[in-house]
Amino acid sequence: MGSTIAEKILARTAGVASVAAGDEIRAKPDFVIAYDFPGYTNVIFKQMEEDFGIEKVAEPERFALFIDHMVPAVSPEEEDLHRNTRDWGAKNGVPVYERLGIGHHVASELGYSTPGAFVVHFDGHVSQMGTFGTLAMGIRRHLLEAFVNERIQMQVPATVRVNLHGEAGRGVMARDIFHHIVRELGPAACRFQVLEIGGEALEHLSIDGRQTINCLAMFTGAVTAIMNPDAVTLPVALERARLDIEPVRSDADARYSAVHDIDIDALEPVVVVPPSPRNTQNLKDYVGTEVQVGYLGSCASGRLEDLEIAARVLSGQRIKPGFQLHVVPTSQAIMEEASRRGYLTDLIAAGAYVTSSSCDYCFGRAGVMTAGQRAVSTGTLNVRGRMGSPDSEIYIVNAAAVAASAITGEITDPRHYL
To answer: Is the pTM of this model over 0.85?
Structure first.
């Protein structure tokens, strides 16, 4: 019986020939990354010294820190947090990447998404690195172990395989495909397991789209998501890879806890209705719902193809008076390229507010809503209070639908503008 890509990666990092789901191992992450956030990194730094007597990490090249929340700081306390992170990085010889964009996406731009590598973070959205054949897991409560020990104790997770078939139609984006997976399988279908995504439909998905799907894996209950590297992703990943690791792929006879086949040929744009990320419905059933705010960004959907299609929808149009459209590219590199291609010019001309990359709009620190307001959003969550008042509502849609809804002030099918 063969092995999955996740099992092969974990076997290498555990220093053994092979592993299987359920095995207890001690794995050495190739990279340990995090963003500074109160109650997480500042606590880890303190515990390292006070509880473990560790003043410096042993292999600083394995670590990376990102400042992507609370940017820019709006209080002395926030700037103190950032200064603490900068100081710790300088003391330990660990790079601190500041204001480059959302950290776990920027990590891929910087080559930490090495095919075959094992990466840990405390944020589960690091799973987007799986686009490049990297096993990237959020270990929120146990990241301290990775800072103080060379290896972490873990159980090898089982893998659920999802094969996507067909090709998405007009106005359907990767965002719709992922939420359709949740609708088909349920929000706990991959609980505590790896979600491995394949099928011939991947041939029609860009790297941007694949990152969107992998980024959201936690909403199936998965510990991460991964795709086998292919002719689309491998050249890009190897060009910037930080480690010389042999890329691996799942064997044809690999062991899966379940295998699902999902056809996307007939898929239409969807909407995830508040207040739960599990509530996927057809967008057409909510057309006409009044909305006042639009958010186009986040680690899931603020990439070039999102900005491009939004610019295409809004080109020559004007946002409805009183509607607030916030556009936040996922990284500064994406923002620069979108500007060069003219996407930002079209968005600004239509009345959008475009701002530098930050996590702040997604977790409700900026662009907050008041009671009674509704948003169309490409953010990661639609739970109560995520973007301000717990009495506001968030409808998750794809980037084209955010742009179309900004024109009309109500949930709108983007296919009318494409």
So the answer is: yes
